[in-house]
C-alpha cells in the first residue's frame, strides 16, 4: 500500500473508529465520501478499489460489507439502512446506484399528523446482496430486496427490481433475462431460503408408508418379501411440487412445512394454524390453505358433533386467512376437490353441498384480497372423460383421497398458477419490512468477514 493510501485509510479509521474495517492493499480515491451513523458498520476486504466521486452511506444500525478484490468505479452511490453485501470479485462500473430502502407511502397511518417533511413517513427496506463475480455495468440501479447471483452481468442503464439467478445476463428497465451461460459456482456464506407453509387436509398431507429398503434402486428387496414400514412420509402433489421447484430454482433453498392433517375440518385447521403461526416466528414466504371436504363429509357420515355448518365454516375460514395474511408474504387458497366414488353415500348430494362450501371459501378469499384457485371444474371435466376409459383410471384412490392421476392433475394446476403469477420470482426477492423490523429480520445475513458472498 502506498503512503497516500496509508494516509487515506488512517484518516477513515481516525474518523470512524471501530465502525470501519479496511483490509490490506486497498486503493481508495482521496475524495471517496464515507458516512457512517451510530451503530453502522462498513467492512472492506483485501484489495478493494474505489474510484473518485463514490459515496458510501451506512445509516443507523446498518451494515455494508465489501469482499476481496472488488472494483468500484466512479460516482457510485451505496446507501444502506438495512444492509448491502458485495461478494468477492464483483465489478461495479460508474454511476451505479444501490439503495436498500425507500420512503414509505404518505398514508394516514404513516403520517397521522400530516407532517410534510420528506422523511416523516419513515422508511422500509430489505438487503441487497451481490454475489461473487457479478458485474454491474454503467448507470445500473439495484432496488431493495434484490439478490444478484454469482457471475451475473447486468447491462448498462438497467433497473433491477427482482432477484437474478446465477450465470444470467439481464438488461432493461425493469431488467429481464437476456441469456444464461455455464459459469463456476463457489460456496456461499448462506443461500436464500424460500419458505412454504401448507395447511389443509389429507389431500395435502398424503401420507405414505416408508422403508429404507424400498428406496435404494441398487438393492431392492426381492418381490414377495416382507419389509417393515418404519415411518410415514408426506408425498402426493405437495412433495412433488417441492422437488420440481428445487430443480427449477437450484440457487434457492425451497423449504416446505406440510401441516396437512388427515380428517381435519376447518375447526381443526384453525387450531393448527394458531399453534404454528406464533408472534416472532420466521415469516412464511407463501402460505397455502384449503379445507372443507371433511366439514361436509362428517355430516354425511353421521358424525354430527364433528361436522361444521356453513356459518361456522365461513367464520373459521376468515380467521385462518387473517392469521396467515399476518405472517406470510403471500397466501394462496386452494378449493377442494369433489368427492369421487363411494358406494355407501349419496355422492351427488355430497358434492352439491361441498360446492356450496367452496363458494363460501372463494368469497372469503376474494374479500381478503387473496387468490383462490378453483380446481373443481378441471377435476369434474377430467373425471368424466376418464370414466369412458378402461377400468382403473380414476382421479381418486377412494371417495376422498387422490390417486396418482389426481395428484398429477392437482400438481399441474398449482404449478400453472405459480408460473402465471410469477410467484417464485417475486418470492426470490427479500421481503421489504419497516426499517427497524428489516434490520432485526436480516441481521443474520451480515458477517464481519468479507471474502465470501
Question: Which characteristics define this entry?
Answer:
11 helices, 453 residues, 6-stranded parallel beta sheet, alpha/beta, 29% helix
Please characterize this protein's 3D structure.
This protein is an alpha/beta fold and 453 residues long. 29% of the residues lie in helices and 23% in strands. It contains eleven helices and 30 strands. It has an eight-stranded mixed sheet with strand order 2-5-8-11-16-19-21-22. It has a six-stranded parallel sheet with strand order 1-4-7-10-15-18. Strands 3-6-9-12-17-20 form a six-stranded parallel sheet, with no helix packed on it. Helix 7 (347-368) links the parallel strand 28 (328-334) and strand 29 (372-373). The two termini are 25 Å apart.
Q: Give a short account of the largest sheet.
A: 8 strands, mixed
> How much helicity do the residues have?
25-40%
Low-confidence stretches: none
Q: What fraction of residues sit in β-strands? A: 15-25%
Lateral strand order in the biggest sheet: 2-5-8-11-16-19-21-22
CA radius of gyration = 27 Å
**Structure summary, number of beta strands:** 30
Category by helix and strand content:
alpha/beta
User: So how many helices?
Assistant: 11
Mean pLDDT: 92
Globally, the shape reads: elongated
How far apart are the termini? 25 Å
Amino acid at each position: 500500500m502506498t503512503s497516500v493510501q496509508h494516509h487515506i485509510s488512517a484518516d477513515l479509521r481516525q474518523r470512524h473508529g471501530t465502525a470501519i474495517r479496511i483490509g490490506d492493499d486497498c486503493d481508495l480515491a482521496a475524495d471517496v465520501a464515507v458516512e457512517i451513523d451510530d451503530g453502522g458498520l462498513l467492512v472492506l476486504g483485501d484489495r478493494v478499489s474505489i474510484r473518485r466521486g463514490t459515496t458510501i452511506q451506512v445509516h443507523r444500525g446498518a451494515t455494508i460489507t465489501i469482499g476481496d478484490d472488488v472494483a468500484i468505479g466512479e460516482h457510485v452511490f451505496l446507501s444502506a439502512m438495512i444492509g448491502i453485501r458485495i461478494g468477492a470479485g464483483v465489478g461495479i462500473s460508474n454511476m451505479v446506484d444501490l439503495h436498500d430502502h425507500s420512503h414509505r407511502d404518505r398514508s394516514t397511518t404513516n403520517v397521522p399528523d400530516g407532517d410534510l417533511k420528506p422523511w416523516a413517513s419513515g422508511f422500509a427496506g430489505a438487503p441487497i446482496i451481490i454475489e461473487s463475480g457479478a458485474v454491474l455495468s454503467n448507470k445500473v440501479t439495484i432496488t431493495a430486496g434484490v439478490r444478484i447471483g454469482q457471475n451475473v452481468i447486468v447491462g448498462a442503464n438497467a433497473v433491477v427490481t427482482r432477484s437474478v439467478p446465477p450465470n444470467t445476463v439481464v438488461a432493461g428497465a425493469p431488467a429481464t433475462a437476456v441469456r444464461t451461460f455455464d459459469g463456476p459456482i463457489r460456496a456461499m456464506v448462506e443461500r436464500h431460503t424460500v419458505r412454504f407453509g401448507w395447511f389443509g387436509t389429507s389431500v395435502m398431507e398424503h401420507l405414505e408408508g416408508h422403508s429404507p429398503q424400498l428406496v435404494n434402486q441398487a438393492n431392492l428387496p426381492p418381490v414377495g418379501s416382507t419389509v417393515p414400514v418404519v415411518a410415514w412420509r408426506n408425498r402426493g402433489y405437495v412433495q412433488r411440487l417441492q422437488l420440481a421447484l428445487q430443480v427449477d430454482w437450484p440457487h434457492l433453498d425451497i423449504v416446505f412445512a406440510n401441516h396437512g392433517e388427515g380428517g381435519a375440518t376447518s375447526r381443526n385447521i384453525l387450531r393448527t394454524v394458531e399453534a404454528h403461526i406464533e408472534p416472532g416466528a420466521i415469516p412464511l414466504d407463501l402460505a397455502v390453505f384449503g379445507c372443507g371436504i371433511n366439514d361436509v363429509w362428517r355430516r354425511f357420515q353421521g358424525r354430527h358433533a364433528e361436522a361444521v355448518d356453513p356459518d361456522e365454516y365461513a367464520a373459521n375460514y376468515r380467521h385462518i386467512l387473517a392469521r396467515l395474511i399476518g405472517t406470510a408474504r403471500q397466501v394462496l387458497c386452494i378449493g377442494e376437490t369433489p368427492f369421487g366414488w363411494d358406494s355407501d353415500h349419496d355422492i351427488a348430494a355430497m358434492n352439491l353441498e361441498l360446492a356450496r362450501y367452496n363458494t363460501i371459501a372463494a368469497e372469503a378469499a376474494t374479500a381478503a384480497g387473496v387468490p383462490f384457485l378453483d380446481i373443481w371444474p378441471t377435476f369434474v371435466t377430467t373425471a368424466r372423460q376418464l370414466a369412458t376409459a378402461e377400468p382403473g383410471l380414476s382421479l381418486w384412490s377412494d371417495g376422498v383421497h387422490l390417486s396418482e392421476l389426481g395428484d398429477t392433475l392437482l400438481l399441474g394446476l398449482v404449478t400453472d398458477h405459480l408460473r402465471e403469477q410469477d410467484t417464485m420470482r417475486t418470492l426470490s426477492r427479500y421481503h421489504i419490512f419497516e426499517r427497524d423490523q428489516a434490520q432485526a429480520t436480516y441481521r443474520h445475513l451480515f458477517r464481519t468477514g468479507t471474502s465470501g458472498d
